[in-house]
Amino acid sequence: MDWILKLIEKHTKDGVLDQEALMKDINKEFPNHAVPKEQYNSVAEAKTKLEGDIKDRDRQLEDLKKVDAAGLQAEIERLQGENKIAKETYEKELKDLQLYNAIKLAINGRVYDEDIVSQLIDKEKVIIGDDGKIVGLDEQINSLKESKTFLFKEETPDPNNPNSTPGFQKIGNEPPNNPQAMDDAIAAAFGNIETK
User: Fold this and answer.
1) 49: nearest Cα among 18, 87, 76
2) Is 194 exposed, middle or buried (0-12, 13-18, 19+ CB in 10 A)?
3) How open is the CA angle 107-42-130, to the nearest 5 degrees?
4) Contact present, 173 and 133 (Cβ < 8 Å)
């Protein structure tokens, strides 16, 4: 948490804290000092699963102590088969969980109900790349946007992009250099109208 104290010191001048600048810097630095929730959840669930697997292995070893020498080979083969199936199941469940979290993260804030939209994604047609990006997801989302538009939120205009600002604008969508000048022009235009 020392990084937050350093940012507070950086944005405090004459005993006054510039909260807006502080929040911007905290939001920028936070990913360098924290683990994303989806990644934490994946690791936590994997840990819980592994702990359960260890308990199963311990139980299997205790059961092996009770087996006679003649039945030992058959028991070993049976347990090897079970362990292979358990490993494959675990790897599939882990992959599904990672894919599910990655899809939810990718559609977060873009849809009304993430659970519904994530269930409409054909997970057999998407792959998580080594960089964590999902290959094949954008095509499916665009297809869903066309066929089921009611599931998606309207994209809000970017306040930093003057071309996305709704309302009256000068020709060419350039932001006015002086908003007061526009107010003065309107007042002058109405002031020139003679009342009868």
Assistant:
1) 87
2) exposed
3) 70
4) no
Q: Are 136 and 121 in contact (CB under 8 A)?
A: no
CB atoms within 10 A of CB 134: 20
Identify residue 70 by its one-letter amino acid code: A
Secondary structure (3-state) at 128: strand
Tokens, residue 16: 């006054």
The per-residue pLDDT for range 118-176, each reduced to its tens digit, is 888 888 888 877 776 778 888 888 888 888 888 888 876 655 655 554 554 545 555 55
Which position has the token pair 């994997």?
46
User: Mutual orientation of helices 19-33 and 2-10 as an angle, nearest 10°?
Assistant: 150
